[in-house]
Amino acid sequence: MLTNQFTHPESELLRRLLKQTKRIAVVGLSPNPSRPSHQVAAAMQGFGYRIIPVRPAVDEVLGEKAYPDLYALPDMPDLVDVFRAPEHVMPIVDACIELGIKAIWLQDGVIDESAAK
């Protein structure tokens, strides 16, 4: 099992990633301001990141055009932040690999061991 083997990246590596990041696709970004995905994305906007909502059946979130999936994005993000349950992670990881997106961020507690492999 990979769960016991996973360690968070070093703080310095995370700092470098966030300094290089300009565009963040937020998969599962809710239009509801009380949801964690909305609050985190709004905070990231406040820090100057361009947020790209990825959520089917929504036209816009936080003033940004929404897209149904990663394949529909006109420009590739630097980072994909995922607000989905573990059973939905594998296709998102597969899309990131296929599209050449090198950084994906899962929320604490979201673990998909087969996707990690």
Strand order of the largest sheet: 2-1-5-6
DSSP E strands, number = 6
Give the topology string: H per helix, E per strand: HEHEEEEHEH
So, CATH architecture? 3-Layer(aba) Sandwich
Cα-atom Rg, whole angstroms?
A: 14 Å
Distance between the termini: 10 Å
Helix content range? 25-40%
Write down the overall mean pLDDT. 87
- So what's the overall shape? globular
**CATH level 1 class label:** Alpha Beta
Structural class by SSE content: alpha/beta
**What's the name of the CATH homologous superfamily?**
NAD(P)-binding Rossmann-like Domain
CATH topology: Rossmann fold
- How many domains make up the 3D coordinates? 1
Strand count, sense and closure of the main sheet? 4 strands, parallel
Could you list the spans in which at least 5 consecutive residues all have pLDDT below 50?
Answer: none
User: Strand fraction band?
Assistant: 15-25%
Q: How many separate helices?
A: 4
Structure, described:
- The chain has 117 residues and is α/β, with parallel strands linked by helices.
- The protein has one domain (15-107): Rossmann fold (3-Layer(aba) Sandwich), CATH 3.40.50.720.
- It has four helices and six strands.
- The strands form two sheets. Strands 2-1-5-6 form a four-stranded parallel β-sheet, with helices on both faces. Strands 3-4 form a two-stranded antiparallel sheet.
- The chain is globular and about 35 Å long.
- The mean pLDDT is 87.
